[in-house]
Design a protein that fits this description.
By secondary structure, the chain is an alpha/beta fold. The protein is about 40% helix and about 15% strand. This is DDHD1 Phospholipase.
Length: about 675
């Protein structure tokens, strides 16, 4: 808004001179931007004097880029897209403290304003704000005073107003300083200003949202339901800082919305709680609310409830956002998803429509094929044929029924929007996919695990010591287990190399591509199931491995239907062994499961790759480790360290703004 113009005579404050504030987490008061403040003030004035009149007649005011609303009558603000128990108080600022421009409490402010108007309304003001600031008040006596409960206010002139504390200690200090020759005003008074430092204008407005990011939590939210809201707020604030520094010239804006899907679910009620022993209760509760979610997800009984919970919340938020921002879809607004931990697996399953039943059908088919190959008696053969015919007939009836249903109602898409980018953070998705039988192929396309028609770009972000994170690239091309993930640039790197220009490099440039003998090198590389995200290091490793073991264990535990499927499907027909085959069995299984042999890697002494099959786009991105963080400590905390990272905020925005920019350039070219 710039410095506000001063009126020549004292009159009531204009709506543009008043500034509204809000306070979160009992911190300091923060000013609303001009656009918000002006609209709140207009609603406040529509209420009538001292908030009388029809409260219902005044609509709530939409503020802070549309994420919150202000109820002027109750002087409270609340979020639009999520639930929050703590209300956010708002305050009308008329008188402000010099220097900080923090507002005086509303009650005092109203009394001072009333007194000021009674005494000085219609009087001439000094000509310029600068002159008024530079004039010393030393030695001037007050021309008017007002006593408040713990303070008093002195007017030394119309424009020179000071607030004094009447606490005993400050009285002593004031007497001493006055005896030493300091004036009363400058010794302990606080200079006050009437009206805010900047004039509120409707032009001081947030840019329009062109891209929304749904932030999906993972495991452990039962323990602290508000955590995803706090985490998203951290990510939003960090992204705002990055936007101001690197993308301030753009007229668009990326908005982050939390998706809180867990607290609405009942699941088993409190059965698990009731069977939990009391000793080390705190630790058990933590495990119940974290590892337990993975067990719920692998249980056929609860899996659907978790999937539906997240799917419905995503669709609810999108519908609500579009109803409040009608231009978003018209202008081609985009949607990305950032998921954390188990949230990545559930989001992936919603997008792809994966279901354990599909796996079960494939398993049955496989068993039928195995039956055909072995010798059987005439009676057995006859019964088997009868079973086949009955199954065939059942399938036909199901298809006809399905056809009838489809003609009457067209099935709505699972999600009401197309996903532009799917960012996984600290994600165990690769382990789930490997346990479902996905094995590396020989084309470098993302389609191998997530078709581009469903989601334009998949990006997997992890901290090198995160015990829950796994790499995705070796599931597409096996030799990528020997290629290091892309290093995410530090936030303050000057002129970083664009990610698409970064060459792949080996994890151990000095060694051979694999440490196994040449004859064996194709199958000796670790399977994506077991290969950790980081190069093997001696520090913090035990903690990271314990974490990985628990994820692997939990992911394959729900033995019921889910567990049997995970452990049986995708294994060679010659060895129908279960998951607990021990080390040798697992390695042997690995060799059989890899259908496409990968030749030894061509590599140069520089550690960069010579041309071979490469990924169309890199998927695995690794945060650079801090230079001073304790290795063990980072293994414990790294799983939740993503939310406030400036490096990640810059990474996310780089990809989203780059796509928007490319499309704008393309449409401009088309116009030309």
């Amino acid at each position: 808004g710039g410095p506000r113009p001063r009126y020549e005579v004292v009159r009531e404050l204009g709506a543009e001179e008043v500034r509204w504030f809000y306070r979160e987490d009992r911190k300091t008061w923060k000013p609303f931007i001009g656009y918000d403040s002006l609209r709140i003030e207009r609603a406040f004035r529509a209420l009538g004097p001292a908030g009388e009149g029809e409260a219902a007649a005044v609509e709530p005011v939409c503020v802070r880029s549309g994420l919150y609303e202000v109820d002027v009558a109750s002087a409270e603000s609340y979020p639009v897209y999520w639930n929050q128990t703590e209300k956010i108080p708002v305050m009308r600022g008329q008188w402000f403290i010099d220097g900080t421009w923090q507002p005086l409490e509303e009650e005092e402010s109203n009394l001072i304003e009333q007194e000021h108007l009674n005494r000085f309304k219609g009087q001439q003001l000094q000509e310029s704000f600068d002159m008024e600031v530079s004039k010393p008040v030393d030695g001037k006596e007050a021309i008017h005073s007002l006593k408040l409960s713990r303070n008093h206010v002195d007017w030394h002139s119309v424009d020179e107003v000071y607030l004094y504390s009447d606490a005993t200690t400050s009285k002593i200090a004031r007497t001493v300083t006055q005896k030493l020759g300091f004036s009363k005003a400058s010794s302990s008074g606080t200079r006050l200003h009437r009206g805010y430092v900047e004039e509120a204008t409707l032009e001081d407005k947030p840019p329009q949202t062109s891209h929304i990011v749904f932030v999906v939590h993972g495991i452990g939210q039962k323990m602290d339901q508000g955590r995803i809201i706090k985490n998203t707020a951290m990510m939003r604030d960090t992204a705002r800082k990055v936007e101001e520094k690197y993308f301030s010239n753009l007229a668009t804006h990326v908005e982050f919305l939390p998706v809180e899907w867990r607290s609405k679910l009942t699941l088993d009620g409190d059965t698990v709680d009731s069977i939990t022993p009391d000793k080390v209760r705190g630790l058990r509760d933590m495990l119940n609310s974290s590892a337990m979610d993975i067990m719920y997800y692998t249980s056929p009984l609860y899996r659907d409830e978790l999937v539906k919970g997240l799917q419905q919340e995503l669709n609810r938020l999108y519908t609500l956002f579009c109803s409040r921002n009608p231009e978003f879809e018209e202008k081609g607004g985009k949607v990305s998803i950032v998921s954390h931990s188990l949230g990545c697996v559930i989001t992936y399953d919603i997008m792809t429509g994966w279901n354990p039943v599909r796996l079960y059908e494939q398993l049955l088919q496989k068993e039928e094929e195995e039956l055909e190959d072995r010798w059987m008696s005439y009676e057995e053969q006859r019964l088997l044929e009868e079973l086949y015919i009955t199954k065939q007939r059942l399938r036909e009836i199901e298809e006809r029924l399905h056809g009838l249903k489809a003609s009457t109602i067209s099935k709505p898409p699972v999600l009401k929007f197309k996903v532009e980018n799917f960012f996984c953070m600290g994600s165990p998705l690769a382990v789930f996919l490997a346990l479902r039988g996905i094995r590396p192929g020989n084309s470098g396309s993302q389609d191998h695990i997530l078709p581009r028609t469903i989601c334009n770009r998949l990006l997997n972000i992890f901290h090198p010591t995160d015990p829950v994170a796994y790499r995705l690239e070796p599931l597409i091309l096996k030799h990528y287990s020997n290629i290091s993930p892309v290093q995410i640039h530090w936030y303050n790197t000057a002129n970083p190399l664009p990610y698409e220009h970064m060459k792949p490099s080996f994890l151990n440039p000095t060694k051979e591509a694999t440490s196994a003998p040449d004859s064996d090198s194709a199958s000796a590389a670790p399977s994506p199931t077991t290969s950790p995200v980081m190069v093997r290091r001696h520090y913090g490793e035990s903690i990271t491995n314990i974490g990985k073991a628990s994820i692997l264990g939990a992911a394959s535990i729900g033995k019921g239907l889910g567990g049997m499927l995970f452990s049986r499907f995708g294994r060679s027909s010659t060895t129908p062994q279960t998951l607990e085959t021990g080390k040798d069995g697992a390695e042997g299984e690995d060799k059989k499961a890899t259908t496409v042999g990968t030749p030894p890697l061509p590599h140069s002494s520089s550690g960069f790759l010579e041309p071979t099959v490469e990924l169309e786009h890199r998927i695995d991105f690794e945060l650079r480790e801090g230079l001073v963080e304790s290795r063990y400590w980072s293994a414990v905390t790294s799983h939740t360290a993503y939310w406030s990272s400036l490096d990640i905020a810059l990474f996310l925005l780089t990809f989203m703004y780059k796509q928007d920019q490319e499309e704008t350039d393309k449409s401009n070219l088309d116009t030309i």
